[in-house]
Specification:
alpha+beta; Hypothetical Protein Pfu-838710-001; CHAD domain; eight-stranded antiparallel beta barrel; 17% strand
Length: 535
């Protein structure tokens, strides 16, 4: 019957997509639900730590550990199909060697909506380093792995070699924690990556203890929580998806979710967006990494404002200030990137050969280097890691379920900003440059808020409103780029008299271009002002 149903369904749907969907539900349900005692789940907080701080970390832990540290060496070889079929189902298969003994492991890892890693593991002892799928006692998982399309194409995709230094300590609230310094290498065909993380595992007690300990550690060392585990890194590298700029996306939300559940999913997604681009920002690669990291921070500020009613006020205030600090640093780098790579080249092409901007380019490159150094220092500072830890800790401090429904909060979070936006837009002709920039920021925040609260709202009406808000954001963005460029030019001109001629030419061009776009901006604002609300 099942085979007939599958055969009929593939006439309408793409076969690979259907199989992936069916197997995903089957495997995920199996690993979560059947309660195999060998698949115990433990909450873990993973922190990144630069290797140069390892000695200082050991001294701190050994001074407070209840049980002396132990050291183990572990090698894991992970298997998957060429199409990464196991990874698509959220599982991993590996052979592990520890102290000369071999095990075969089936794992499901990854952060859940609380920002912690909940590792589920099914293991069996084997006599030699060879896959023995038939020995897994877990029926459904074994049947999936034994499928000919899977078992016949399994191959090694990467290897993880690790050294673990572990300590056990008990805090003042009687929570039992295992602290592990994990060092080693992730290696695949043609690539390798160093690993240096601190894993804090809750052995007994409450999850809040993980963040309390991590925050105390962050006071001494620049640690930073990470949502991506070693398996995810290896699979991304093996699939050729590592190192690309990461865009924003909306998690799967539903109207029947509690506000706490929605908040957790949104925060986790925003952190994925932010942390996926930070490595590219630190490497100083293309400006898209900076742009995406800045977008993630703007979305985070919007979430903090929209869900203020269920967040601890003191924590939210501190987090908001830190987000603004980091956003400002990234914003300065983004502004000079846009001017240097987009605005100025366009002007130069139009004015060539009348103008020579070589001196201006040199001054901008110097300013960009200074901005890059500031961003690098901010992302490598303890303040950045502490910001993320405080944010994740907030998700665990508010355990009471709010009686407010998502639709109610949507109306509250959208109505006042909408009225404020329309009121300010109605005064368009008399607005100053600063006020027009504020209008743009309001439109952007309203667009993000509407995206977050879209599940319980009429879909088509939401899309129409989002489209108009996006149009307003674009036309005002062009004007803002000109205003930012003029401010930057004025600052550079004060420090270097040789730039006076170039600054004058570019400033005149930007002012004329902004004037030409006023009519289009007025049209977009008028259309938005007459739109009915969808909440």
């Amino acid at each position: 019957m099942a085979a007939f149903t599958l055969q009929m369904a593939t006439k309408v749907f793409n076969k690979q997509r259907l199989l992936r969907c069916m197997l995903s539900h089957r495997v995920r349900w199996t690993l979560h639900a059947e309660g195999d005692p060998s698949m115990a789940s433990q909450a873990m907080l993973k922190l990144q730590l630069a290797p140069r701080y390892n000695a200082a970390f050991r001294r701190l832990i050994e001074a407070s550990a209840a049980i002396a540290g132990t050291r183990t060496t572990q090698i894991r070889e992970y298997y998957d199909t060429p199409a990464m079929a196991l990874n698509q189902q959220g599982i991993a298969l590996c052979l592990q060697q520890t102290a000369g003994e071999w095990q075969q492991l089936l794992l499901q890892t990854g952060p859940e909506r609380d920002g912690l890693h909940h590792q589920r593991e099914l293991s069996i002892a084997i006599p030699d380093p060879a896959l023995k799928i038939e020995q897994f006692p877990h029926g459904k998982a074994r049947r999936f792995l034994s499928k000919k399309s899977i078992s016949s194409t399994l191959q090694p995709i990467f290897t993880v070699s690790l050294k673990h230094d572990c300590w056990v300590l008990r805090d003042e609230q009687d929570n039992l924690l295992e602290i592990c310094l994990e060092r080693g290498k992730l290696k695949g065909i043609g690539w390798s990556e160093q690993i240096n993380t601190v894993n804090i595992t809750l052995k007994q007690g409450k999850n809040a203890a993980l963040f309390a300990f991590a925050l105390r550690l962050a006071d001494k060392l620049p640690v930073c929580p990470t949502l991506q585990d070693t398996v995810a890194k290896g699979c991304m590298q093996a699939a050729g998806n590592a190192g690309l700029p990461v865009g924003a996306r909306l998690p799967a939300l539903s109207p029947d979710m509690s506000l706490q559940q929605v908040l957790q999913l949104l925060v986790q997604e925003i952190l994925r967006h932010l942390q996926g681009n930070v490595p590219g920002v630190l490497r100083g690669e293309e400006m898209e990494y900076v742009h995406q990291a800045r977008v993630a921070l703007r979305r985070l500020r919007t979430v903090l404002a929209a869900f203020a009613a269920i967040l601890p006020p003191d924590s939210r205030h501190v987090i908001t200030l830190d987000v603004q600090w980091l956003s400002n640093s990234l914003g300065q780098l983004r502004d000079v990137d846009v001017f240097l790579t987009e605005t100025l080249p366009t002007i130069e092409t139009t004015m060539y050969p009348m103008a020579d901007f070589a001196t201006l380019y040199a001054a901008l490159q110097s300013h960009r280097a200074h901005c890059r150094d500031s961003v690098h220092a901010a992302l490598c500072s303890p303040r950045y890691g502490t910001l993320l830890l405080r944010l994740l800790a907030c998700l665990h401090t508010n355990t009471a379920r709010s009686p407010i429904k998502l639709r109610q909060l949507a109306g509250h979070a959208l109505s006042r900003p909408w009225k404020s936006l329309i009121s300010l837009a109605g005064q368009w002709e008399t607005l100053s440059q600063v006020q027009r920039h504020d209008l743009r920021k309001r439109a952007k925040r309203l667009r993000y808020t509407l995206e977050f609260f879209s599940p319980p709202l009429p879909h088509k009406a939401v899309l129409r409103t989002l489209k108009q808000l996006h149009c307003l954001q674009l036309v005002l963005g062009k004007m803002n780029d000109s205003a930012v460029a003029l401010t930057l030019l004025a600052r550079l001109g004060e420090d270097n008299a040789e730039l006076a001629n170039s600054v004058g030419l570019v400033a005149g061009w930007l002012a004329y271009e902004a004037h030409c776009k006023l009519e289009k901006q007025a049209q977009v604002i008028k259309k938005l002002s007459h739109m009915p609300t969808c909440w």
